[in-house]
Amino acid sequence: MNRYLPLSIIALGILAFATLLLVIAPGIQIGRHDAPPGLEPYTEQQLRGRQVYVSLGCVYCHSQQPRSPDQAPDGARGWGRPAIAADYTYDAPHQLGTMRTGPDLLNVGARLPSRDWHLAHLYQPRAIFDWSIMPAYPFLFEVKGAPDPGDVVVSMPSGFGPEAGVIVAKQDALDLTAYLLSLDRTYPAPADAIRDDGYRRPEGTP
Amino acid sequence: MTADKKQEAERSSRIDETFEPYELHGKMPWPLIAFAVGLGLWGVATLFETREDVVGAQAERVARSHTETGVATEPGAPLFLARCSTCHQPDGLGVRGAIPPLAGSAFVAHGPELVATILLRGIDGPIRVGDHVFNGHMPSFSSVLADVEIGELATYVARRFGTSSDSLNAPDVAMLRDRVAGSGSFKGGAEIASSTDLDLGHQPAFVPATAVSLTPEVSALVFTGRGEQWACASCHGDLGQGKENTPRLAGLSADYIVKQLGDFAAGRRLNESMRLIVASLSDEEKRQLGDYYAALRVPSNARPDLGGSLARGEALALHGDWSRNVPACFSCHGPSGFGVAPEFPPIAAQHAAYTASQLAAWAGGRRNNSPLDLMGRISRELSDADRRAVADYLASLPPVPAGDDTQIAEIGEHP
Amino acid sequence: MTEPAESLAAKPADPQRGRIARWWIHAAGAGIIAAALGALAYESGIIPGRQTSQQVAGPATAGFFQPPADDQIPDDEFGAAIRRGQAIFMNTSTNASQYVGNGLSCSNCHLGAGRQPFSAPMWAAWGQYPRYRSKNNQINTMEDRVQGCFTFSMNAQHSVAGGPPPHGDDIYRDLQSYFYWLASGAPNNELMSGAGFGRVARTELGYSPERGAQVFAANCAVCHGAEGQGQMDINDRYVFPPLWGPNSYNWGAGMARIDTAAAFIKHNMPLSQPGRLTDQEAWDVAAYINSFERPKDARQQGRTIEETRRLYHDGDEIYYGQVVNGVLLGVGTPDPVRPVGAVD
């Protein structure tokens, strides 16, 4: 091993070049864009729910990045328009995800706007989809003899609830559901938004 | 010690053992360099090409958003063709016995302000134009057209089909919009005459339809859910307006809704959530739900947001694609997508995501409840881009009949 | 390179060996570069063949004459006449209001705005006139022919005018402008493929309204209604045309003949699924549709039904003047209280 110096300089140079192109330049580009008018910051509860989302590892199976029609039929799947950079303004860190074992969730709040549906689905996904491979999260709920005032009772399809008593959602379940319902990026994308237009030819050209 | 020294000497005498390998300054073979340069060139060219596409697509979107929001000052003619001519016809003569003519109409003769007011509010009751009485169901364009567009359209209509040379600007329309907000559609020509004090000739009286009353049980179904089920409104919205791929139910015919509920139960339409919901509904409850949603009047909250080509969508909706045996949407769903009871639901103002996903479901076999497999066969003929195009176009249309849009604003606040 | 392999194996230090390896490396490198440059050229569109997305006419209209599209209508006086003609064609009851006595438009039978093959496309009809027609034993110009459409298919006898547009009316001028333009480039005086409604081979069973009733219920009623009276939207605008009864074509129309109706149905119905019905079903359902009463033959005048039948329907496949289900057909639906489309 000789010529340490030139090797180190080249290695650092490549690293600096990559940092410039992959981190700094996109950072500047993204920094120029404000939050879209339709996007609300998360509330306290939604942020707590986001922590639950992270801690349960939802990101390992669910992405949050609908793709453009050239890349995947996400529009036809009902997952919403292609995501733009500004959709993640309030997400730090973002939960883009890479796996699509389950459906994309960036617009799940628009697609499935019912809190009660989500609670039932979290308690036992197979109560709704008998083919679902999503884990059940019964530990986000408790079974009580009778609901206390203020409790949110989960209505389960017959055969999936407890034999006696009612299912009541714990705070974590309510927070998580609030977060899921806040996932709604269906406002129109600003015309100058940063998004993936690669390989898309303007209409009319071959 | 001596032994060590000996070994040391031995080692140094064997040069090979202390040899530290290094690379000679060999020449890189020229093909490798050429290959790298070629790849680099290719990469740069692709970057530039992609950049061109990105810039082109962005310019296209900006231009389109300008037409949609009315930033570009276009005369009303293209708007008239796109928004009015399916009913009133390109020549403004209407359709005998069904759609009033604009040419020579006393309403149009009063100038652009009245035209704009009608565009904003819509009509939902009998109206006399010339010597003929018409049913008078005209949608409100308030939720789908911007102030500038309404102004241009009203100016154009009043100028072409009336005698007025006045023009109506966006600020005027904004004031009009404020004034008519929340007043709902005109109850026929009679209300237009009485609310404006203009001479519009004798107008037929409006006979209100009997209001649909919900039993407490069905009301609970809609708004609070029951036992094992969550509420209709928790997904479809308090006014049945829907969102994304939860369909708009307001204004669908009762028979159609009842049939769909039955189809969910029978598995002709596959949707797990709906299958659970309908499992415990009685026939009477289905009927009541159908009646309730059929009677709702809600402005459109659908937007073309799938990135489809609106021009292609319009062509499919109005003319179809005969080369593939795809008839015009409107040839069955009615000339403006208002639906023909009971088998052909309204498709105007339906959410683009829902329409596209249903077309995909027909093509993919998850929905099998179309009479004669009409929609199945048509959907299989459409490309994915066609499905998005037509869904986007339909989402840009006004709903029928008219409604008032304060309700939708409230819904926007609703969690 | 030409040396035998064993000599290479025997002499590993042969300088020839390294040269071959280098030769291969060079060849592979050059190949990859050539492929990269080729791909670049292909991507950028320098090489033709990238334009694969051009519209290919599908099976439905492939192989037939292709009439011009609407956006090719010229922007001049002639174009204005074409547009007026098209408006009349599509919306006849409004744009030729005083001459239409029912709920039909030209475009109800001439589908696709007069473009669809085997739906009596106007591009094929244009070059066929003037011609002799046995229907009235004389040479017919296109104007005569269209007048016949108003008389029978639009049932002009119940219209405000009480008859078809008089000869020389602008309606004919505009309609013919439209037809002439649709036939741009079409051969003259030649029977074109896709002309008329085509034919359906006769079947062994013949035709029967009873069997047709079932075909109708299964395939037609969803659009045309169980009673065949068509369907309207909320503004009372016909979306699906009535097939029989007072608002349909009269007994003198070509479509009242079972063979004509069968051909139309076989090639065009149900809309978007031509060919769905078998020949037998097309015959049966055509018989069913034409076994109901409709407005009387406009040529009947003071004659009896039997006289009219002998004069105008002899030898035709039509139920006119026959007793079907115990009812004599051809009497005509009652005249309207006031002409169709008249002021209320």
Automatic annotation (TrEMBL), chain A:
This protein's record includes keyword Iron: yes
UniProt KW keywords: Heme, Iron, Metal-binding
Domain Cytochrome c, residue spans: 44-184
Domain of life, per lineage: Bacteria
Gene3D superfamilies for the chain: Cytochrome c-like domain
One annotated GO molecular function: electron transfer activity
InterPro entries xref list: Cyt_c-like_dom (IPR009056), Cyt_c-like_dom_sf (IPR036909), Cyt_c_oxidase_monohaem-su/FixO (IPR003468)
One Pfam family of this chain: FixO
Record's protein name: Cytochrome c oxidase cbb3-type subunit 2
Organism: Chelatococcus caeni
From TrEMBL, chain B:
Signal sequence range: none
UniProt domain Cytochrome c: residue ranges: 71-161, 214-297, 308-398
GO MF term set: electron transfer activity; heme binding; metal ion binding
Annotated segments matching region Disordered: 396-415
Entry keywords, A to Z: Heme, Iron, Metal-binding
Protein name per UniProt: Cytochrome c553
TrEMBL record, chain C:
Gene3D superfamilies (UniProt xref): Cytochrome c-like domain
InterPro entries hit by this protein: Cyt_c-like_dom, Cyt_c-like_dom_sf, Cytochrome_c-type_DH
Annotated keywords: Heme, Iron, Membrane, Metal-binding, Oxidoreductase, Transmembrane, Transmembrane helix
EC code(s) of this entry: 1.8.2.2
Top-level lineage group: Bacteria
GO MF, one annotated term: thiosulfate dehydrogenase activity
Coiled-coil portions: none
Top EC group: oxidoreductase
A matching Pfam family: SoxA-TsdA_cyt-c
TM annotation in the entry: 21-42
Domain Cytochrome c: 207-293
Keyword Transmembrane helix assigned: yes
PANTHER family in the cross-refs: BLL4482 PROTEIN-RELATED (PTHR35008), CYTOCHROME C DOMAIN-CONTAINING PROTEIN (PTHR35008:SF9)
Protein name: Thiosulfate dehydrogenase
